[in-house]
Amino acid sequence: MSALRGAAVALTALMLLGGCSIKKMAIKTVADSMAESSANYTSDEDPELIREALPFGLKTLEGLAETLPNHRPLLRSLASGFTSYAVGFLVPEIRPLEETDLERSRELRVRSRLMLLRARDYALRSLEVEYPGFRAALFADAKTAVERVKVADVPDLYWAAAAWGSAVSQGKDQMDLVAEVPIVEALIRRALALDESWEQGSLHEFMIVFESRGEASGGSYQRARQHFDRAMALSNGRKIGPLVSLAENVSVYTGNRKEFDELLARALEFDVNSAPESRLINILGQRRARQLQAMADELFPEDL
Questions:
Q1: What pLDDT shows up at residue 11?
Q2: CATH architecture assigned to 78-303
Q3: Is the terminal CB of the chain with fewer CB neighbours within 10 Å at N or C?
């Protein structure tokens, strides 16, 4: 957080500089630094510190993006930041609130959906910089549109798909949004075709959730398990996300309580300090695993 505050102070000073070109060059230097430093959050050990710091950092990045609308690292950081904040900190609160404050849970669901769509739009803006007209082409014919995208753009494909897919899950009553699932699929499948190993199997981890839509909606629990195996292999077991995702999205819907319990036990036994590059993600994964354990009897009522 101190780094972000320092950058904000530097940014304010830069605004006072004379000369448009000099000012813009200086702002770009700050933007490059902030976009790069935002990736360091994943190694932090304090989720609450990151939760408090992220909104400030994201709003600072948005201010920079107004001056540098075509700065792809900034747009990418905004896409990843808003997605991570919504999925990591907001969405997990929704279901518990349904038991105590239904109105608040509905408000949080709407807020999460809007934030995720905001993230999606930043990812699409980044792709637009490289491929003008990409957004319109995507809505017209997604499969054809994504064929132009190259391996260097896999992060944008991933964050667009992750944000969009998560928005759909938080807006299942929004039929126009649900109808866009084929676009999400085109984005993530293109990313897989370009670099399936990206970010230690994160694309396959996404597919665990995506395929868990079930047969009736075009998904497949069998394919979800195949993606789980690949995600675990590519991460060398250093990320517990696949364990929690399979438990929550496949074990529950196939009624496999034994598998559910075993997967969550493995996730909670993992030493988060053994993989410092993914420490925060794993800590949040363990937090979700504990939530799921507490809800187990509700999720598997037939076992009571």
A1: 46
A2: Alpha Horseshoe (1.25)
A3: C
